[in-house]
Write a structure and sequence with these properties.
Layout: E1 9-12, H1 18-29, E2 33-38, H2 42-54, E3 59-63, H3 69-83, E4 88-91, H4 106-134, E5 137-142, H5 146-149, H6 155-175, E6 180-187, H7 200-208, H8 218-229, E7 240-243
Parallel strand pairs: 1-2, 1-4, 2-3, 4-5, 5-6, 6-7
Helix pairs in contact: 1-2, 1-8, 3-4, 4-6
C-alpha cells in the first residue's frame, strides 16, 4: 500500500487542516507527490508539507482561493510547473454559513455556493485539460450527507453539496472515454473546524441516528478518497460513496 500511488501527482484543495489535511497525508503516504492548497493559513499548510517530507514524501504548498477562477488556474499551473503532470484532483475546500432560510442573508447563500460548488468548476476545468492529454486522471470531489439527505439550517450548504454530486456525475460522463474517473465521497459527521460549533442538541441527534453511534475521523474519509484515487478503483466512476457511519441509510 505504501507505493500504491507512486509516480502520481495529487492536488488537494483546502489541505491545510481537517479532512483535507488527512487526505494530503494519506495520498503522500501511498507514494503521491502532493500539492497542498490553502487559502489563508500558510503556517498550517507548511506543517502539512513538513510532515510529508519528514515521512520521506514530496509536497508543495500553494496559496489560492479556489472559489476564484483565476486563482484556481494558478494553482493547477503551479502543480504542472513543479511536477509536469496532474493525476489526482481532490476538491475538498469548503465552508458553512448555517442559518434557517428565513433568517439567511444573501451573502451567506452566495459565499457557500461560491466556495463549495463554483470551486469545482474552476479547478476541474483547468485540471481536465491536462488529464485529457494524458488520457488519465482521478477526480474525487467531497460532498456531504447533507447533500443527500438535507439538514435543518443548511439550505445553502446542502444545495452546494447536492450540486457537487450532480456536477460530478455529469463530468464523469464527459470524461470517462478519456480514461478519467470522477467520483464523490460524502462524509457524515466528522470533528473538524466546520463542525466545531455544531450545537450539542444537533450533535446528539446526529449520533442517535448514526448506526455506528460515533463521529467519524478525518483519516477514515482519507482512506476512501485514496481508494478512489487509485488504480484499484479504475472501473468506478460517477459513484457517490457515503462515509457516514450509516446515517444516510438510516434516514
Amino acid at each position: 500500500m505504501g507505493h500504491q500511488l507512486a509516480g502520481k501527482v495529487a492536488v488537494v484543495t483546502g489541505a491545510s487542516r481537517g479532512i483535507g489535511r488527512a487526505i494530503a497525508l494519506e495520498l503522500a503516504r501511498r507514494g503521491a507527490r502532493v500539492v497542498v492548497n490553502y487559502h489563508r493559513n500558510a503556517e498550517a499548510a507548511a506543517a502539512v508539507v513538513a510532515q510529508i517530507e519528514a515521512d520521506g514524501g514530496q509536497a508543495l504548498a500553494v496559496q489560492a482561493d479556489v472559489s476564484d477562477f483565476e486563482q484556481a488556474q494558478v494553482l493547477i499551473q503551479a502543480a504542472l510547473d513543479a511536477y509536469e503532470r496532474i493525476d489526482i484532483l481532490v476538491n475538498n475546500a469548503g465552508t458553512t454559513r448555517d442559518q434557517a432560510l428565513m433568517m439567511m442573508k444573501e451573502d451567506e447563500w452566495d459565499t457557500v455556493i461560491q466556495v463549495n460548488l463554483k470551486s469545482l468548476f474552476n479547478t476541474c476545468k483547468a485540471a481536465a485539460r491536462k488529464m485529457v492529454r494524458q488520457r488519465y486522471g482521478r477526480i474525487v470531489n467531497i460532498s456531504s450527507v447533507a447533500g443527500i439527505a438535507g439538514q435543518f439550517g443548511q439550505t445553502n450548504y446542502a444545495a452546494s453539496k447536492a450540486g457537487v454530486i450532480g456536477f460530478s456525475k455529469s463530468l464523469a460522463k464527459e470524461l470517462g472515454a478519456r480514461g478519467i474517473t470522477v467520483n464523490v465521497v460524502a462524509p457524515g459527521f466528522v470533528p473538524t473546524d466546520l463542525t466545531a460549533d455544531l450545537p450539542d442538541d444537533l450533535r446528539a441527534a446526529a449520533m442517535e441516528h448514526t448506526p455506528l453511534k460515533r463521529m467519524g475521523e478525518p483519516e477514515e474519509i482519507a482512506y476512501a478518497v485514496a481508494f478512489l484515487a487509485s488504480d484499484e478503483a479504475s472501473f468506478i466512476t460517477g459513484a457517490v460513496l457515503p462515509v457516514d457511519g450509516g446515517i444516510v441509510m438510516s434516514g
